[in-house]
Design goal:
Number of strands: 8
Distance between the termini: 35 Å
Number of helices: 8
Order of helices and strands: HEHEHEHEHEHHEEEH
Strand content: 5-15%
């Protein structure tokens, strides 16, 4: 049951937790039972985390969701799965749901090709971002009044995934009609692997300034503090424990002093 995430977090001495509200690799995950929901709220109260505005609990959506897919049927399935996630979040009082922007699946990029972090989106990327925004618009229309925010997470840019540079995330939010229901999640491993250097005090400061310039720090509601196994710009999404990778101590000092 979902309450076990809270119990485990408290046992580990944490003051916040990210969880999956259902099996993240199934198209039709089981919904929490009435008893599981009751246990959830009991666990939150015992932890002192009952106020949803404290944002101590974050959900991560299913890895299967691709709201930017050009395949109409696949995108329809993704919208349905994301809707079920948002419904669970709302029911459980979770106000932040992290979601990957998805992949445009059009054309190919060489694995050795570096991300251009200053360029405007390509034609294929722009089409994918527009599909993402349209899918989010549909969800917002179907789920009016929901308080849960969708936090778009930056990516490393592997394959045809979107969101590897901050201006792509910013554009997605701009294109969504109900933009106040969109926020951001920054993953430090993803940022470095995408090409944002943070291994010196100056480079970390510069990256934070870019985040603020494109996204607005106030809209970054979740941070995934992960180190990276592979070098800056590698486009490889392989996490390492903090200070066991290549991100550098300056990266983590910077994000904890924003």
């Amino acid at each position: 049951g979902v309450a076990n995430a809270i119990h485990e977090a408290v046992a580990l001495g944490l003051d916040c937790v990210q969880l999956f509200t259902a099996n993240q690799r199934q198209w039709r995950p089981r919904q929490p039972s009435q008893q599981e929901c009751a246990d959830w709220f009991t666990a939150l109260k015992a932890a002192g985390w009952s106020n949803p505005q404290d944002h101590r609990v974050v959900s991560h959506n299913s890895y299967l969701v691709n709201l930017a897919s050009p395949d109409v049927a696949a995108r329809k399935k993704s919208i349905a799965l994301q809707r079920s996630e948002l419904e669970r979040c709302e029911h459980l009082g979770i106000r932040l749901c992290v979601m990957h922007p998805g992949a445009h699946l059009s054309g190919k990029r060489l694995t050795t090709e570096k991300n251009n972090l200053q360029a405007d989106p390509s034609v294929e990327e722009l089409a994918g971002i527009k599909r993402l925004a349209s899918s989010l618009d549909q969800l917002h229309k179907e789920l009016p009044g929901y308080k849960v925010l969708t936090c778009l997470e930056n990516t490393v840019g592997a394959g045809t995934t979107l969101g590897y540079n901050f201006n792509q995330l910013a554009l997605a939010k701009q294109l969504v009609g109900n933009a106040d229901r969109i926020a951001f999640c920054i993953d430090t491993c993803h940022a470095v692997a995408a090409g944002y250097n943070m291994d010196t005090t100056t480079s970390a400061k510069n990256t934070l300034e870019l985040i603020d310039q494109h996204l607005g720090v106030k809209h970054v509601r979740v941070i995934h503090a992960n180190d990276s196994q592979f070098p800056c710009g590698s486009r490889k999404d392989r996490h390492a424990n903090i200070l066991d990778g290549v991100c550098g101590a300056s990266c983590f000092k910077a994000i904890t002093h924003v």
